Amino acid sequence: MGVGYALMLVAVRDFPLRTAGLVLGAVAMTGVVVLRQIIALRENHELATTDTLTGLVNRRQLYERLRMALARGRGRGNVAAVLIDMNGFKQVNDNLGHESGDQLLVAFGRILRSSVFGTDVVGRLGGDEFAIVLHDVDSVDKAVAVVSRIMAAMREPVEIGDVAVQPQASFGIVLALPGEDDADALLHRADTAMYQAKQNRTTGYAVHVTAPA
Questions:
Q1: Which residues form the GGDEF domain (predicted)?
Q2: Are residues 120 and 141 in the same domain?
Q3: For the whole model, what pTM was predicted?
Q4: Are 7 and 35 in contact (CB under 8 A)?
């Protein structure tokens, strides 16, 4: 039984009907008992795999999902990774407070999640750093198209209390090579591209095109 299923036990008990000491019959009473251990297991699984602030998958789960995607690709190289680092987040924290910073992280997570397809995976790696695993992507252009949708959504300011904040971020894009199965190496190349994007903010993103050693 996988996580997410609730096991239910049905307890049946007969209660006799009596009158003047005589048993006239019985009424069957049923009660549904939900095993609390199963519910606790599901909750523990969610805590272990989910970022509690944004509701996205956490770092550990994102790496695991990327490994699974690479394995399912069977060497076809139809997986892309996007590493994202928010720009100006420290200023929001310093000027508006950490609570406002948290609200911005949550809002940015929603933007990312609403801009990808249902099979794609969006995760928060920590701080103001996020990552996306894109499935069924066989060209850099398709990955860039997803990033372009995100950047278009970022043009709409986010209301943080009485202040309108426009999210800003740098994106590093990398396409898995045929036969590639190293999630760490793939994300490292995406990280390199992301820092290139930070240094040159003309487009807001950079693509890592060099094959891994």
A1: 77-212
A2: yes
A3: 0.79
A4: yes
